[in-house]
Amino acid sequence: MRVLAVIDMQKDFIDGVLGTKEAAAIVPSVMKKIEEYRQRGDMVIFTRDTHHEDYLDTREGRKLPVPHCIEGSEGWKIWPDIDTEGSLIIDKPSFGSPELAALLQKKNRQEPLEGIELIGLCTDICVISNAIMIKNSLPETEVSVDPLCCAGVMPETHHNALKAMSMCQIDIKSKGEEK
User: Fold this and answer.
1) Domain segments of the chain: what residues?
2) Residue from 163, 156, 110 nearest 145 by CA
3) Phi, psi of 145 (to 5 degrees)
4) Neighbouring C-beta atoms of residue 169, cutoff 10 Å
5) Mean pLDDT across the stretch 90-113?
6) Are 138 and 113 in contact (CB under 8 A)?
């Protein structure tokens, strides 16, 4: 079984307070990738950046003083065109999700995973954080990222994150490559 981890495809990162045109542009590719995994019977897991009303008092809030993904708000929701039905959604209070890495370790013990692919937002913050956590948790499992289904805070930081992940032996899929 292969696993697709869809990272933080939330309204605030697409058309909300931290939205970018690059994030909006990947939505159709993300939807297509999710459908491909489901048609093969593979697992799709979502993460959701989750903050609370005290966000500005947190360490992250002091460094990025833009309230976003406040639990229960419109911006916290997964983009409405993306179908999450039947999939686990993991709420995470920070960039990376130890819960996601632990779940994948457990699944791998039950049945060795063929690979884990990450897509979503933002390449240079939450995608890279989760990819490295997963790679460290499952060093013998193929971990990959599809750059056409990711967007960073800025195009330059997106590319920097892809280079950094590649250096950590996370496979960066080439344009048109299928897995």
Assistant:
1) 2-172
2) 163
3) -135, 135
4) 10
5) 98
6) yes
